[in-house]
Amino acid sequence: MIAVSERIAIPEHELIERAIRSSGPGGQNVNKVSTAIELRFFIWGSSALPDEVKQRLAKKRDQRITEAGEIIIQAQRFRSQEQNREDARARLAALVRTALEPPKPRVATKPTRSSQRKRLETKRLHGTLKQDRSKRHLSDE
């Protein structure tokens, strides 16, 4: 069981763990032992998460979340399988924790007087520049 918060915990049966061969340094150990862990968690199939948390998680723009709503975490930071397993679970819990709080609503603001003035001045200058171009073009003919 992965404790995400005091109210939410992900049960073991909702996780799919697979030991895979790790890449990178490690000598012969890398070629012989599958120390990396691939952790899969299906968002929509979880009974532990409330619906609004599931929706926020699925909407997140994170490369670890597939379009089908599956979170795939690969942990290969350590040389031992057990440490990588703990790392993958901690990273899953951290990812789910980010979706627990609803996002702060955006407050629409008005442009400042200064920015409005600058925009209109730039617009006027651009218009006169274009006008000047057309006058020169007509007089050349």
Automatic annotation (TrEMBL):
It comes from the Bacteria. GO terms for biological process: rescue of stalled ribosome. Residues 118-141 have a biased composition (Basic and acidic residues). InterPro entries: Pep_chain_release_fac_I. GO terms for molecular function: peptidyl-tRNA hydrolase activity; ribosome binding; translation release factor activity. PANTHER family: PEPTIDYL-TRNA HYDROLASE ARFB. This is Aminoacyl-tRNA hydrolase. It comes from Arenimonas maotaiensis.
